[in-house]
Amino acid sequence: MTFNTDTDNLPAAAEIADLQERVLAACLHMLDSGLITGTWGMACARTESGHVVVTPSGMNYRTLKPADLPVVDSGGRRILGTLRPSTETPMFTRLFALRPDIRAIAHTHSTSATGFACAGRSIPAVLAELAEAVGGPVPCAEYGRFGTPELADRIVEVAANVRAVLLRNHGVVTFGSSVEEASSAALVVEEAARVALVFDQLGGSGGIPQEEINALRQIHLQRYGQH
Ligand SMILES: [Zn+2]
User: Which residue among 88, 181, 190, 191 is the active-site one?
Assistant: First the structure.
């Protein structure tokens, strides 16, 4: 493992190898679950040192090896790997800078959730699983050009208490303390969008009260967290 930098604050090789494997596995899981079409979706994870293991741009996840995943520094400069990082990397590095609590991000253009994003509508919290995994309705951020740091600013504006945000006319981002948590939140968001559409068609109204959403989220954190 040869780093393309002279900085001394480098991530440990074992940590990088572990994250490369888990980020690629999360992408394959999202691909198999129908959340990602082709290369329209990705994941990334931050190391203890603040570097980011990210998926490369325009590559088939099924033929990639974990070691092919590039590593960038907090400014988005590639420090490891030969493949060009995802074009959406500047948005991810900015998100990590703005939200130190986030360790991993998943990003998809999954169909139903993206339909809500294109309509500029949040996904209501009518499904208990969404309240648990995300912490409330999924808000929609104002439009920003894909991959830009400005789009990260728009995401953070609406993401105060939730782990998922819709990107207007674009797709979805989910956060987590691990890449597995972020990618499974992406699955729950797409499922919640589909359920919300049926709920609308049936003339449903109301949702889970905020107090109950908070209680469900707490139960989830106690069950799955590191407490
Ligand atoms: Zn995108």
Answer: 88
Torsion from C-alpha of 28, 33, 38, 42, nearest 10 degrees? -60
d(CA 37, CA 34): 7
Listed in sequence order, the residues at least 6 apart from 58 whose beta carbon sits closer than 8 Å to its beta carbon are: 39
Distance in angstroms (rounded) separating the CA atoms of residues 50 and 27: 21
Check if 212 is active-site: no
What DSSP designation does 66 have? G
Cα of 42 from ligand 1 centre, angstroms:
8
Q: Is the pTM of this model over 0.90?
A: yes
Residue-level pLDDT, tens digit, the chain, 227 residues: 778 776 667 888 999 999 999 999 999 999 999 999 888 899 999 999 999 999 999 999 999 999 999 999 999 999 999 999 999 999 999 999 999 999 999 999 999 999 999 999 999 999 999 998 999 899 999 999 988 989 999 999 999 889 999 999 999 999 999 999 999 999 999 999 999 999 999 998 888 888 898 898 888 888 765 54
- CA R_g for the chain: 17
Neighbours of 226 (CB within 10 A): 6
- What is the C-alpha separation between 116 and 168, in angstroms, rounded? 8
Rounded distance between C-alpha atoms, residue 127 and residue 143, angstroms: 26
State the distance from the centre of ligand 1 to the C-alpha of 169, rounded, in angstroms: 10
